[in-house]
Amino acid sequence: MFSRLCRASARLASTAARASASTSATTASYPFSKTALLPTLSAESTPALRDGKGIMRHLQESLYSPRKAEMMKTLFSRRSPKQLRVGSIISIISDQAPTVFNGVLIAIRRRGPDTSIRVRNILQRTGVEVQFFVNSPGLKEIKLLKPPPKGRMRRAKLFYLRDSPEKMSMLAAGKH
Length: 176
Prior knowledge:
Organism: Cyclocybe aegerita
Shape: flat
Keywords: Ribonucleoprotein, Ribosomal protein
Radius of gyration: 26 Å
GO molecular function, one term: structural constituent of ribosome
GO cellular component, one term: mitochondrial large ribosomal subunit
Largest sheet: 5 strands, antiparallel
InterPro entries: Ribosomal_bL19 (IPR001857), Ribosomal_bL19_sf (IPR038657), Translation_prot_SH3-like_sf (IPR008991)
Number of helices: 5
Structural class: alpha+beta
Distance between the termini: 69 Å
CATH architecture of the domain at 85-173: Roll
């Protein structure tokens, strides 16, 4: 009972302190809470962006480097003849550890700038699965070592390879 009373009084004191600090710091108030702090708007954004116009063009210009844009066009476009396909054996070179990771491409998630791939390999009898974001500045290069058997796989995501290392080793050996 006493601890509940202490907590309630401490909460009331901190709420009152925050309310007085927020009213002195900013003149705008939030109608649903007296303790909410409102951020001040920066004048760095252009008027067109503040009105909601040109946001996509702004994102397209500011997100991709030319090298990444070329990699996205060749490896991840559905219309490209050199596109990566699920079931391929690929090698990924990055800045962070592991610097070189070889494995089976088990999933591609195409989401524009947030495109990511999942690569799985078995190292020392332990399955290792790494997700790489293609637009990450730490990702240097993606090399196709071997295309999938018979040109393509029947599934879009090969998550069933997690449960059967035999199938994964057959896929890596090209006997599928």
